[in-house]
Amino acid sequence: MMKEEKTIVIGCDQSDILAILLDRLKTIPNFLVNVISVSRIADLLSITKSLYPSLLIFNFRNNQNAIEDFNRFVNKPEIPLLCIYNHYDSQSYLFNDKNIIFSYALDSINNKAYFTSTVRSIFLLNNQSQNAPPATSLATQAIEKDLTRTNRNMSRYVLELDQKLEVLHSVKERIKTLCPTVDNATRMELLSIVNAIKTSANDTKLWEDFKLYFEKTNPNFLLLLAKKHPQLTTKDLKYCCYLKMNMSNDDIRSLLGINQESVRTHKYRLKKKMRLNKELDLHTYLKAI
Predict the structure, then answer these.
(1) Residues 6 or more apart in contact with residue 121 via CB below 8 angstroms
(2) Contact criterion met (CB below 8 Å) for 79 and 105
(3) 0.85 surpassed by pTM
(4) Strand order of the sheet with strand 55-59?
(5) Distance between CA atoms of 204 and 195, rounded to whole angstroms?
(6) Which of 21, 76, 144, 253 has the most CB atoms within 10 Å of its CB?
């Protein structure tokens, strides 16, 4: 049976406790866990603004402030919180009408079986809540199927467009090789055709057409992405669109005319340009926008 993937974000400002938590989360029965850890509340807020983790674990010296900041700046009350507290802490923050909060005593952190069982139980409860069939489930399924089909058609559109541009490039190069072998009048006519091909291949309308098509299934994605990261170039935005469309590395390599290593390098540079946490997966980040 394939294990279900879950993402946990840990906010912990004590390195010794963080090391224990990371060790405890290596194995959760029936689940494959991806863990992102931060030591500052600001970093936790930044990550959870972009992602929808399955669980947030709080172990700050002041968990109450962390929860208040989470509600004020992120406002995703559907994400369950597991707060680890000292026996001498005030636990008043554990009771509010905004969050789904579970508590865990720091004194019990060394009991690995108890801790993993607690996390697993939270996952199972959350799954049951998510799996409750909504009244509009059939309509939702139809919409999702239509979006998948549109994305598939859009991927084909982009690939076909790239192939046409490649053909135009080949024709242009072939014409240029013929120019020295013909008379002046014919040469001028051929150069006119070459210039027309250049204009067509570099036409920004192609990008505008693609954006219109893309935004039918991903409304406001480019707008939000450009607002969050104004330093991105048109090429960067195109690359983000391809990732959002779930294109494979081979498709992206073909579209951009680069090798596999360059695809990986481009991802790395893009994450760096966007100033994303190195543990954060770029595809996951873009999918959440």
Answers:
(1) none
(2) no
(3) no
(4) 31-38, 4-12, 55-59, 81-85, 101-105
(5) 16
(6) 21
